[in-house]
Amino acid sequence: MADPKAFLNIPRQEAGYRPVHERITDFSQVEQTLNSHERKLQASRCMDCGVPFCHWACPLGNKQPEFQDALYKGKWREAYEVLAATNDFPEFTGRICPALCEKSCVLKLSCDEPVTIRENEAAIAEAAFREGYIVPIQPERNGKRVAIIGAGPAGLSAACRLNAKGYEVTLFDSKPMPGGLLRYGIPNFKLDKAVIDRRMGVLEAEGIKFEMGVTVDVQNLPAGFDAYCICTGTPQARDLNIPGRELKGIYLALEMLSQQNHILDGETFPKERLVNAKGKRVLVIGGGDTGSDCIGTSIRQGAVSVTQIEIMPQPPVGHNDATPWPQWP
Ligand code: SF4
Fold this sequence. Notes:
By secondary structure, the chain is of the alpha/beta class. It has helices at residues 6-9, 20-23, 36-44, 53-57, 64-72, 76-86, 90-96, 100-104, 106-111, 117-131, 153-164, 181-184, 193-205, 253-264, 289-301; strands at residues 145-149, 168-173, 209-212, 227-230, 281-285, 305-309. Helix 6 packs across helix 10. The longest helix is centred in the middle third of the chain and has 15 residues, at 117-131. Iron/sulfur cluster (SF4) binds at residues 58, 60, 62, 64, 93, 97, 99-101, 117-118, 121.
């Protein structure tokens, strides 16, 4: 385990965000990083609990205490290997996962200062890329070909796993670039698209093929494959069927978020199709992550004001009887 007493002496330290006055003027990533020494101190706080609830909470089953221990000891390569055993893209989850594990950390229960698991994950992934620990694998081919329809997180993950087992994988997607919602939904200020490109370079070097800008008809699947994996996600928005919905100036979140990412990628749109909050008073309906992405995007586009409304009551601050630890609050 990491330092057995560190959790008593070292407080949780988050890297924090760039200053507001600076970050609202651009679409670059807002989260900062700690230096290696501070990062190791944060990893040292992990108590390697007998029952690690963080395992239970993580949808990927990441082995958090094991990679914290390696990180604390400065074994960055080993930390990455532990992480990569369960997580194909720790550089994505390290940036945008809501970190369910941290809410289940025993230090969340005892002092409300869980281990900075998500940030540590991102730091390990960045070190692995920087130090060249991520080498494209060249698996022995088994002669079978698989087509994956949809190059979002699910399709990319399926591609990784199948490729590692020796299948020849081709990803199809209607969008010009792979990534799905990672690329065309999540704002750049949360996930820089260069981070996606970097990983796509690894997948390509491993032999995974990309057929982008291709709309696949599920009744007429591309020929020449032994199996098909449909990973198309849920691009259909949940609309509000209420009077006035047809009025001008009402958009679904992804119309705005996706277009902004396309624009940042160098695409242009005719004026009549532009969704831009510049000089507008914006009302965001919905108080979740997508709503907050729309707020951040509206502010960066130059909205005069932004108001957000949410149907649910204000969540309690701190402990919530309805969702006691180790549940997600
Ligand atoms: S940050 Fe997310 S992906 Fe990473 S260990 Fe926690 S729950 Fe799992």
